Predict the structure.
Amino acid sequence: MSNIDDILKRYKSGSHESLIPILQDVQAEEGFLSEDAIVRIGRFLEMSTTKIYGLATFYDQFRFNPCGHVHLRICNGTSCFINGSGAVVRAIKETLGVDAGQTTRDGRFSFELVSCMGGCNEGPVVSTGDSFSTHVRAEDIPEMITKLKALADLK
Amino acid sequence: MKETEDTDTRTLLIEEVLRPASDSVSTAVEKKLAEIRRDKPSVPVIYIPSGSAAIIAGSERSAATAGQYLTDMGVNGLVVRTGCHGPAAFEPMMCIRIPGKNKLIFRNVTEDKVETLLNGVFHNDMPEEDLVGQSGTRGFEAWHDIPFIEDLPFFRLQKRIVLSNCGSYDPESIEEYIARGGYRTFLKTIRNYTHEEVCDIVERSGLRGRSGGGFLTGLKWKYALNSSSDNRYFICNAKESDPGSYADRSVLEGDPHRLIEGICIASYAIGASKAFIYLKTGSPLPLARLRNALEAARGYGIIGHNIFSSGFNLDINIREEAGAFVCGEETALIGSLEGKRGMPELKPPYPTSSGLYGKPTVINNVETLMNVPLIMARGPEWFRSMGTAGSKGTKLFYVGGRGRYTGLIEVEMGTAFRTIAEGICDGIRDGRAFKALQIGGPSGTFLTEQSLDLTVDYDVLREHGIAMGSGGLIIIDETTCMVDFVRFYMEFIHGESCGKCIPCREGTGRMLEILENIIRKPHSEDSNATLERFKGVMQLETIASVMKDTSLCGLGQTAPNPFISALSNFREEFEEHIFDRRCRANVCRGLRTFTIDVDRCTGCTVCASKCPANAIYGTRLQPFFIVDEKCTGCGICYEVCKFSAVTVR
């Protein structure tokens, strides 16, 4: 929790324009925006928590539950879509049993859709952390998830 | 030792290159600059283009392997990471300069190929199959029988002005940028010109905003400069909203310093002392490169307080947007910077009179700003000499989709789209047939074979009701279903609609619903369901026109564009979906029926084990069959069958 205080120290209290950067910093540090964090930010900025929730839910970037140990980013940009990312997304949803933005019950996996990571010629692109899988096909997904399970358990 | 050397270089660059008002430098300094630029390297240099496209294709591993090779073999050489050259199909690329010779460019150098390739180059046994060509610079010896890359259609048909630096220097080295003449234009501008003069020069050059609208940049600056206020703001819009474009971020990765120089000049022109770069979220590499570049520029005193004793102050901050398509719109962007929901406001007042915190604000996009230092350095006449009567200069495009050579390209205004699709991109991959070229992303239009002769020109396109957009071009071939593609864009826009005005919020939702209905699997084809579907379809065009007329901002007004354009060009495809329940591209999974050919099926069980719906039954080594009621149409059986026994209709 002291992390949040450290982040808040960097900003001027009561200035509403720093709300988005604060939320971004807190999410970068904690992985998501917890209820407690939002209450603290509200106190710091002298803003009601409903206002903060209202803003945070407007933007796609913010999430309110922790990421899985392995967080997949699936490119759903136009090029990847043309090369078949739709089927890949469906396969991932079916294999994991969760939707984009949610985390599996065992806490191992979560995934999000992003639009264009810049690898348009290599699509569909799926990334985990710093590594990228290119030309992913729907039928590769179950095997890929099985392999990643081992990685998720290490964390 | 290294540190003192760095400090020496820094002092030299500041005192001998940046501070003096004259252009010429002494021979000794010039020699040092040539050394920084690696003009005449005495050791082999391996350049690795390292943009996002390259990194995704594996360039970092290739770079590490190349570094290891040099160490293992005891070769005294350098590995330098640069920006991307453009052709995404060639990534990861590797460019090698042997001292005294032209640069050699190789394609698809994955880590396993690095050793063989370097062995070949160093021992004069040229690995021909991966060789793209040589790149000529004056004063170097040309290789025999190796084509120049400038002669390849991909490069020959382009005019690389904005991209001139991309791929030729290390974007993380400010020293190299300054040695190549960088930042001198900015300092000359603040020394020699008044604010009005800078606006005037840029206005005379005819530079128009590259974010789509095409407004005269210099004129926009003048509006802001002339509105009376004690404070003004400058914002660089690097929020590339189009989900199919990576152009601005590619440039930013390859040449961050020129962007910063452009921002500096633009801020000076409007008299702003604070500038923001509004960067799209989830772009780790562009963010890192920008941060690094800004840090370095601050260290050199190029941004900060009283820049080079000129009395001009400038601070540039990066603000990451938080993921909302609508924030590409000027007023929504400003709202988001102020810490509010990014929702568009009615214009006027325009941001140039009342923008960020109510102060005059100018928002320009990355590509526009990349042109500014060049215009200031080479003069407005030089810029006017390129392009057409109404559109000057060049235009960047990020070509994606099914073209043979896709990637980041730059063409002179007035170039026909046919040149891009058939010349630069060399047609369609895998010998398939061209269907359409999509321009302008989710608010854009489809160009069919007949309209490819239109040219890249704001006025020509506007005449045909087409928006230039920010630079996304998608090449579509016969394997893409237009209905599904339109649905994809509608789904995207529906998710991104801010919800402020009803035509956009409800209209996108209703259109998406109807489009999904068209491609859904007909579970019970009773007359009622059919009637509902037809009723919906008949409403589509009406909804589209209402949205166009009554939405508050550009997002809603242009959201029906892909649909309207697809319907007018590919009406028969929509009708097939609606009446015949058939998808000619075999994409819409609700309308696909899979069957197993009994003569071809060997009973290998692969399809049955992979089927996520357990819809395939049979006995091992006997032909299998698909139960139609259980089949979800995902097509995995079709993909995995090694004997082409699964057929789709």
Notes: Chain A is about 45% helix and 10% strand.
